[in-house]
Amino acid sequence: MQLAGRVALVTGAGGGIGRATARLFADRGARVIATDIDEAGLTETADGYGDAMVACPADATSADDAARAVALAGERFGALHLLVNNVGGSRPGKTVTDFALDEWDFWIRLNLTSTFLMCRAAIPAIAAAGGGAIVNVASGAGVTGMGRNPAYVAAKGGVISLTRSLAIDHAAQGIRANAIAPGPILTPLMKRNRSEPEIAFMSKLSLAGRLGKPEEIASTAAFLCSDDGAYVNGELINVGGGRGGPI
Known about the structure:
The chain is an alpha/beta fold. The chain has a single domain (7-186, 213-231), classed as NAD(P)-binding Rossmann-like Domain (Rossmann fold, 3-Layer(aba) Sandwich). Helices cover 47% and strands 15% of the residues. Helix 1 crosses helix 9 (214-225), helix 3 (63-77) runs parallel beside helix 4 (101-128) and helix 4 (101-128) runs parallel beside helix 6 (150-170). The radius of gyration is 17 Å and the shape is globular.
């Protein structure tokens, strides 16, 4: 019951790391507002959790939806203490010179602006509750880079820098902000973006000899949101199984 008494808002909860995070937080005692644009996936995430988890179909790239999700936390659970930003995605295969401006804007909005919008909506509520924690799921690609995926790399690097700014600006309100940089994690997105030989190759590069599990990112987020992580602020936690260089 590491998170008992806390109310959490988890974005991207329709599958992958977001689903694992929403479920683990509920398992550890939090009451959870789970959001995603994937309504069917979101319903599946919340199935079996009863009143401990509320599915809230919402688009994290929409300022109105972000505000609505935060308001729902107050309406259903009376407060908001924790925010985990997990929305993101990419489609590798292009360099900067291949991007149309609207395509670039789409990926930046999905991977970076969504985090800004959710933080902007949630921080006043978290402060009003007496403080809490924000965890932004970035990517190892935002640290090391990645071939032919510049918008994603730039956006996730931006998430890391934004997190450090949040920690500085809102520490006085009792709000901690940290980022997680997952390495290769076997999620539905990974399966869509990479072939089986590529996944096997990435597994061999890891010192763990395998790809990571969504639950391993979720448990790191739970630590950062709990009293166990109370002295961790403005940090980037790499969870990549130990590997060298970009993939």
